[in-house]
Design brief:
single chain, elongated, mainly alpha
């Protein structure tokens, strides 16, 4: 009986996955996210990713079974916190660093958010994976910066702008391409923080 349990479905899945190296898996994930950025979620197919990575589509289907599962796995594997570790000793300094980091990655991350816009409204798992990969880690890091600033006495804990800082940062990243046809680069983001975010928090630009 113990032998049968060891050879159950989870072991079979692990055996299938072990045939793909982490480097090859990363190549698949990068390929599908790049194609989504370029063509939109609806236009991307497992066949297209297979062709671009020189593998058989059956290889991808064995691993992930469907496009939504594949994209969810790619998003979760890409999770990173670009704002993590930012601690200049002042909130103004921290937010300027946040602005630069956000601007440097805006072209990739904002484009991916836009490309997945309609799909995440229809697929709850996809929406959850996107939030886990690109939104929640950064929001948590921002809230930690704000918490430190309150503890240092830089910002009044009752300042109503505190809760809106993540929305300000993410909002301008999403809206600038629509309003001006350009992604929010580092210089633009720093100007935005200095003109809008810092004054709202009662900080000098």
């Amino acid at each position: 009986m113990a032998s049968q349990a060891a050879d159950g479905p989870e072991t079979a899945v692990a055996s299938r996955r072990s045939k793909i190296t982490p480097e090859r898996e990363r190549e698949f994930f990068d390929a599908v996210l790049d194609q989504i950025r370029e063509s939109g979620y609806e236009a991307v197919t497992m066949e297209g990713v297979a062709a671009s990575t020189r593998c058989s589509k059956s290889t991808l289907y064995r691993q992930w079974r469907s496009k939504p599962q594949f994209v969810v796995a790619a998003l979760r594997a890409s999770r990173r916190t670009r704002f993590a570790g930012i601690d200049t000793g002042s909130l103004a300094g921290d937010l300027r660093q946040v602005a630069r980091a956000a601007g440097e990655w805006s072209g990739k991350d904002t484009r991916l958010l836009q490309a997945l816009g309609n799909a995440i409204l229809q697929d709850a798992e996809l929406k959850k994976a996107l939030r886990e990969a690109l939104v929640e880690p950064e929001v948590d890091a921002l809230r930690e910066m704000l918490r430190r600033a309150v503890e240092r006495g830089e910002v009044d804990p009752d300042n109503p702008a505190l809760e809106h800082v993540p929305a300000q940062i993410f909002g301008v990243l999403r809206i600038r391409p629509l309003l001006e046809g350009e992604y929010a680069d580092p210089d633009y983001m720093v100007r935005f923080v200095e003109a809008c975010v810092l004054p709202a928090l009662g900080l000098a630009p």
